[in-house]
Amino acid sequence: VIEDSGDALDEATTRGVAVLIEVGEAIDPALAQRLKSPKDSRIFLVTKHEQLRVPDDDDDVSVLDISLRRSELEERLLRTVVSKEQPALERQATDLAARLVAGRARLADLDDEFLQSTDVLKTAKERDEILRQVSDAREAQRKINAKRDEYRPCAIRAAILFEILDSLKQLDPTYQYSFDEYLESDCLGDSKHVYQTTCRGLAERHRLVFGLQLCLVDAPRDAVEFLCHGSRTTTIQDNKPDWCSQDAWNNACELGLDAKVEEWKEWYHSPSAANSEKLLLPNNSESEIKRLCIVRGLRIDQFPEAAKRFVAATLGPDPGFDLLESFKSSKRVLVLKDVDPSLVHRLARDLGKTLEPPERISEAADAGSWVLFTTTTGLYRPLEKIPSNCHPDFRVWISLSPTKIPISVLQHAVKISGGRAPVMMIPQTVFPLCWFHSVLTRRWRAYDFSFDFEIAKEFASIYEKDLLRHVVSDVIYAGRITDPQDLRVLHVYSQIFLDDQAPPPEEFYPCPSKKDARALLDVLFDRHQNPTVDDVELPEPLDTLVEGDSPVDIVVAQEIDYYNKILATLRDDLPKTTDDNTLLFYPSVKPLGSWFKDLHKRVEFFRARDFKVFWLPAFTNPRKFLSALLVETSRATGVAFDALTWDFPVVTDPITQRPTEGAYCSGLLLEGARLADGALCDPFFPISPMPVIHFKPTTKKQQQKGLYACPLYMCPRQAYVISVDLQPGQHPPSVWITRATALLLSDYGD
User: Fold this and answer.
1) pLDDT, tens only, 183-233
2) What is the pLDDT of residue 342?
């Protein structure tokens, strides 16, 4: 074994001596050149990285995986568990194993010596005695192994937990754990202990993934398969209700919820479905898994919240960041994640004295000091040579990119993550000061308070809250106000927000009980669940096959093709989608959340292909659809296209089939009135739905006087389509004209 790849390697290969070299993730180019030695040389490269990067032009390298397998993990863990629970039993097992090995070796020697032996009888007797001893040892070993197997379930579980622990390196290369140190744990096989101790070194975004993996160790296999993949059915389930998607319905059928599906409708539309009382099942592990599967199947957007609840109920609350516990559990080395080393101030004890890393570590180990590494220079070897009898307070802190830290160091180090969270804690005085400043800037835009806030924030860390109120209101902000009335209002606001004797803050502004920055952001920006719902429920593409070649069929096929292009664009560029560029698809004034809901309804209309009644808002070009209806009538009757006009009777009878002429159209909204008994009324009514209207082409339109030609728009005041004649009721048409009464295919949204 050599520590360098220079002259010692050349000498070893020349002499034909086997060479063992430990390398990192990639082979150094200089070393790669030296590996091109005579074919009879024996060079072994050992690495702890799973994927060793070998030079492309080197065909003489064979890669062998000698990492521990599940069975080997179980056996080593079984020995450890039995040693802790029944030390005498494990000692007997070890002694018997040694006796068996020695007995088999002696038998092999006797077999080799039998033909050359001068005393064959003596050799035979010795061989029979050893065979008897081996047989007795095997019988004793069988009984001991039977007792040891009582602890095998614990070893199997501990092996699974370590495999989960070892798989964390796929999330972050920093998450490296030593199996030898895992064996020293006092709680092998305890998921809660592994979760609590490991989470201190995990980033917050990775804790839920790790906790969920631990919780699913005991879950039924079919439940785990469902959580990972959902329903595996390849057929479309029938009788789907109109309020859920096809995927959700398939999942509901697989979970056995289809028999009472209507009972889940209200829960399905709940903004906090994961915490709904509908899911209050009995408190046991089976119910927790079932609850998680229901949320996964019907409301996948709520799955992270449900998973957090599941992990907390199974393993306990998230331990979070605990520097003291991390320090106590560490032996010598701690790795700091997400720390900027440039923020560390270094104070030299002896000016002008420069120590190399080995000397610095040796001196600190004797004195019980701390050493911080912010560079890889001299990092590897000194840490491997830390003496075992060093001062108990001695620690080595490492703040580097994970890829620059040797795996052997990471495996034996305690990882610390989330250290910046306490720094982000906002004092109770700063949060109300922010509200105070925001109210002033919104009320008096003529005054520029920008620099005043920065100054007040600095004073907030110096003065008590009561004194801060006087400094802020009488000195800092008041210096810019010239109007006495404005100054009076300023003092009132300072009492509301900055006075300890003022009424509770909840009466004027929300103040969360927690002081962390995330809770404050939730209050400030009032996050809502709809964005996640809209993102998850993006419809699947439509089937482009349309039967028939009539003008209406052609328009329907064009609409389907256009919606598929919209869905493809949204899937590719959804993070870039904003309220502005969604309007490029078709006219709409809906906000983004409502726009996606409306898109879902449009797509589902064309997916259903139930054209007895046409939902007119689904068409991105309704004028083309109406023109297609006129073309169909013109071809059927022989009347010229230009000679046709429209009649708009209101449909009151049940609809069983599509009309022979024109089409039944639904989905129209009436703004500034409502329709009762076929006539307009209530001129101050905001928006009301219209009944089904028969858009009927005719050449003999009855010319009734006093009808109100109500304009039809695709959205409020945008994209005129056609004028629909409506009965004005008790008011003359001029009333509806001044009220700007109109028909809409799309409103303002939620």
Assistant:
1) 777 777 788 888 888 887 787 778 888 889 888 888 888 888 888 888 877
2) 45
pLDDT band at residue 388 under the 50/70/90 scheme: low
Give yes or no for residue 25 having a pLDDT over 80: no
pLDDT category at 35 given cuts 50, 70, 90 is low
Report the pLDDT averaged over residues 42-50.
Answer: 74
Contact 355, 229 (CB under 8 A): no
Q: Is the pLDDT of residue 552 over 90?
A: yes
Tally: H helices and E strands in the chain: 30, 17
What is the rounded distance in angstroms from the CA atom of residue 540 to the CA atom of residue 247?
10
- What is the mean pLDDT of the segment spanning 144-170? 87
Instruction: Label residue 504 exposed, middle or buried (CB < 10 Å: 0-12, 13-18, 19+).
Output: exposed
The answer to whether residues 457 and 468 touch, using CB atoms and an 8 Å cutoff, is: no
Query: Measured between alpha carbons, how far apart are the two ends of the chain, in Å?
Result: 72
Residue 655's CB is within 10 A of a number of other CB atoms, namely: 13
Answer left, alpha or beta for residue 240, where phi above 0 means left and psi between -120 and 50 means alpha.
beta
Taken in order 132, 137, 138, 142, the sign of the CA dihedral is: positive
Tokens 């046991």 belong to 284
Residue 414: φ, ψ to 5°: -90, 125
User: What CATH number does the domain located at 538-744 have?
Assistant: 3.10.490.20
Q: In the beta sheet, which residues pair with residue 687?
A: 671
**Which residues, 6 or more positions from 659, have their beta carbon under 8 angstroms from its beta carbon?**
694, 696
CB atoms within 10 A of CB 725: 15
Give me the mean pLDDT over the 98-103 stretch: 85
- The number of residues in the chain equals 750
- At a CB cut-off of 8 Å and minimum separation 6, what does 253 contact? 231, 233, 237
Query: 334 forms bridges with which residues in the sheet?
Result: 397, 414
CATH class of 329-416: alpha beta
Q: Are 194 and 165 in contact (CB under 8 A)?
A: yes
Closest CA to 689 of 611, 617, 586: 617
- Distance (Å, rounded) from C-alpha 171 to C-alpha 548? 53
Is residue 245's pLDDT more than 90? no
For residue 252 the two structure tokens come to 């509901």
